[in-house]
């Protein structure tokens, strides 16, 4: 395996604040430039009571309190991918904190796929224009003076990206902690072989690179964890440690995925998140409605 992917800026170590949402097992991050108040927020959560059809802002308000309490300036609101297990709070955070809502430029593929699943009309643009910025593969950007780079890492979805920020990389759902393995690849547009190759791109980063996961489910009852190094993942990840071949991974991943149930919030999450977190437009009475496609997933 070639270890060739450079760190965006190995001289800088961003300050990382992790916020864990117990309901969806999601970890959101506030990533700060150590030399300025500039920060980015990754993978925020909008609280949603599916049974009641009610949204709330507890998780997002916790982020807002942290940002304001620390005197930070939000420059980016980044989604590592179109999440299927929680709704994004990016528009709410933008309203209160500013920043650009951004995702990978393959979002158009996801929008085309799920625009059909949810029978969206012609008014739904399938070009990613709902987002303020679309990251291209290997695109360099900055958080204040902190250098960052977006790497395309598809497989879980076609539009997944890993964000390398200083000595840290935020991997979304592509990788889990070493004892939890990897994300599923059976959603429409997912591909286990592409997932394996994307993970190899992440594992080609320097061994000391800090990796931050978007989810943890505490396997075997251990405490929730979300940070590992590239070296730890290479050596001990139960699905992709160095002794496991691509074909072995694909066989394992496809077999595991065949027995998994769909995420509880996949239907509301996809139709909201593919629109940059925007809720459905209200009808003439002011009410908003989500669609439930029968036998569509």
From TrEMBL:
Question: Which GO BP annotation is one of this protein's?
Answer: glutathione metabolic process
Q: What is this protein called?
A: Beta-lactamase-like
**What SMART domains does this protein map onto?**
Lactamase_B
Tell me yes or no: is Metal-binding among this UniProt entry's keywords.
Answer: yes
The record's section on CDD domains has: POD-like_MBL-fold
Per the UniProt record, one Pfam family is Lactamase_B
Every copy of the Metallo-beta-lactamase domain together lies at 25-215
Q: Which UniProt keywords apply?
A: Metal-binding
GO MF? metal ion binding; sulfur dioxygenase activity
């Amino acid at each position: 395996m070639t270890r060739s992917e450079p760190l965006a800026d190995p001289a800088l170590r961003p300050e990382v604040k992790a916020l864990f949402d117990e309901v969806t097992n999601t970890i959101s991050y506030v990533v700060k430039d150590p030399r300025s108040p500039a920060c980015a927020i990754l993978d925020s959560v909008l609280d949603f009571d599916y049974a009641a059809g009610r949204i709330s802002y507890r998780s997002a308000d916790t982020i807002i309190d942290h940002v304001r309490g620390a005197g930070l300036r939000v420059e980016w609101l980044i989604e590592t991918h179109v999440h299927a297990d929680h709704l994004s709070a990016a528009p709410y955070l933008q309203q209160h904190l500013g920043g650009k809502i951004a995702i990978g430029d393959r979002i158009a593929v996801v929008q085309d796929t799920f625009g059909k699943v949810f029978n969206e009309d012609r008014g739904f643009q399938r070009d990613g224009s709902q987002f303020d910025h679309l990251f291209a593969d290997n695109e360099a950007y900055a958080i204040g003076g902190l250098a960052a780079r977006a790497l395309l890492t598809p497989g879980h979805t076609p539009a997944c990206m890993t964000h390398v920020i200083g000595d840290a990389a935020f991997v979304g759902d592509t990788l889990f902690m070493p004892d939890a393995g990897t994300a599923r690849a059976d959603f429409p547009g997912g591909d286990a072989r592409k997932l394996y190759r994307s993970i190899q791109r992440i594992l080609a980063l320097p061994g000391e690179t800090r990796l931050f996961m978007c989810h943890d489910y505490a396997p075997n009852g251990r405490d929730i964890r979300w940070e590992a190094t590239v070296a730890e993942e290479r050596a001990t990840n139960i699905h992709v440690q160095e002794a496991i071949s691509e074909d072995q991974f694909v066989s394992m991943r496809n077999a595991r995925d065949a027995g998994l149930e769909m995420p509880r919030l996949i239907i509301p999450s996809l139709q909201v998140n593919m629109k940059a977190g925007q809720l459905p437009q209200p009808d003439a009475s002011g009410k908003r409605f989500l669609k439930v496609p029968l036998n569509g997933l």
